[in-house]
Amino acid sequence: MSIRRAVAVTMIACLLTSAAACGGDDDDASGGGGEITAEGTDDGSELTLWTRAPLELQAKALVDAYNKTHKNQVKLTVTPNDDYVAKVGAAAGSGGLPDLFAADIVYVPNWTKAGLFDDLSERIELLPYADKINQGHLTAGTFEDKRYVLPFVLDLSVIFYNKKLYREAGLDPEKGPSTIDEFKDQALAIQQLGKKDTYGTYFGGNCGGCNVFTWFPMVWAGGQEVMNPEGTQSLLDGTAAQQVYRTWRELQDAGAIAPGAKDETGATWVAGFQEGKVGVMPYPATLLSTAAKTVDVGVVPIPGVDGGASTFVGGDGIGISKDSKHSEQAWNFLSWLSSEAAQVDVIAATGSTVSRTDLADNKYSQKDPRVAVVNRVASLPQSKTPVSVNFQQAFNAPGSPWMTLVRNQVYGEAGSLAQDNTALTDALAQ
Amino acid sequence: MAKANPAAGWAYATPTALFVLVFFVLPILLVGRMSVSDWGLFAGNRGWNAPENFTDALENRLFWPAVWFTVKYTVVTTVILLGLALGLALLVQESSRWTSFLRTSFLVPSALGLASASLLFYALYSPQASPFPGQISFLGTPWSALWSTVALIVWRFAGFYMLLLLVGLHSIPGDVYEAARLDGASRGQTFRHVTLPLLRPSLALCTILCVTGSLLAFDQFYILTKGGPDNSTVTIVQLVYNVAFQGQNNLGRAAALSIVVLAALLIVNVLQFRGLRGKES
Predict the structure, then answer these.
(1) Which chain A residues are Cβ-neighbours of B42 within 8 angstroms?
(2) Using CB atoms within 10 A of its CB, is residue A110 exposed (0-12), middle (13-18) or buried (19+)?
(3) Is the pLDDT of residue A31 over 50?
(4) pTM to 2 decimal places
(5) How many domains does chain A have?
(6) A422 — phi, psi (to 5°)?
């Protein structure tokens, strides 16, 4: 009996001490000797970098280009989208974060608050083009006046339309929708072609993140907001938002949304358009080069109720982790990442949007007017990155209050808007 | 013999004891500690938070729906699965010519991991890849999502439970059946009064395995439905996962929920053992 008790006591004691050792974070990671420079150190260190699968294309291109031109070598780890938060969480708890890691920009406020990133304020200020870096991402990565995150890859939402189908429906293939009503009318026109397996539009009816990305800009374009500035209260019961819901409900009632939308969890929400089965829909701009392989794509900004234009400045931010032992070397990668060499010769070359306003007009955007459209809308004042600490829980998580609201508005009891919006505010304000 | 060296005894038991300690006792202690702490996924341990973790966990808007759904799913799966497995076992035992072919074909799905099987069914059910004609929405309504998942589980596990019951059937001595036949018992009477009572230990084992497994259901729903549509298929373990990694990112609250599930599971199993043992004596 006494032996058993002794074992138990020892075990509990072990547990407590080990956890205490875990909890005692040391803050001297950045004080790794040497002064802070704009370029950082390139001394042949090995760096680790984590990102999630949707950004694999851009991340690989960036890492390859960096490794070719630098002594430091970056080792890239790509994790499936759904497992990424759990993986980062486990590593953060055990002090095993990589030197650099990217985060969905809407989760960044939560992660900076939890102290996962190193403070980059002084270093960012040393960059000669600091004020040209995408403001949406920088703001999302600012916590208590300190900056923790730079843009890694920008993902913007724009309207894609299928020019071939537009011609068949008698619509002007050079003119996409410029108001929400035009969007609806053009989708209905495509639907009325009555072609087999061809539908007006599509959306992720069970995918919170998809609709945040594509519907928020329709509200912003008319100057309205989706949340209060603190990100603790939902304003998604406003007049513009109601008009957006009504539009999708009417499209649904008219049968102009491709089947499968109601169950669409986001895994395949971009597939239909690439197969040429969808006329017009809000779409991630990073997929322009992919979609253009199979479809004659037209691109216009996402319009609001009375015109205007906006985009959701999404994608991933990147920072140096609190656990990094190579802070100076990791900064060398980040500094290069925001340089012209990386932004134009790698990011723009893969067809993605550059994250510096002064590089928006570059040799690649001059070649393709569609890229120029995307770059231009990125720097509009109505284009935003929403900031809220509880964003994931309120919007992106499966079964989130936002998902309930959207599904009620499109498929169910539209009268429950006030109640659903209150539930959303409750989740944001926690 | 009775006075064997106690040190040797300890030495024999040590490997198992170590395994149990490292892979069972320590994790449970850790979860216990988390459940009374304010423990964020990213922030780590931020001190004591004892009754709040449990009250918050139980006040979660999805808690009672998840409990209800898990129980419903468990009852449906257990009844269908055991009924079907018993039928298959009898069928395989009866037919002599096709026995090995039938046994193999019922058992093959058990060789597939549950996650792989779920992915296979996900493809079968998805509107993009489904071989079924027309636009059947397999996962679109709460009702169809439940039954589509039950279909997967029955396909995956029926062969396994059939095998367990088959072993039980084989262990029933042949002379009992002979005696029944001599007494003029019909097939139905033989089944009800000979086979079922003598099969009780095997049925008990299967019930306990099936109930426990279904109460802890996660993979199949995580892959097939993600708890949807409209949170109608959130099981209790999925709720634990969601609280820990999908939004709230609160390990303390998730651990509290796990402790509640563990306690409930213990009670259910004690009751099952009691009930089944009581009948036997």
Answers:
(1) 88-89, 92-93, 110-111, 114-116
(2) buried
(3) no
(4) 0.78
(5) 2
(6) -65, -40
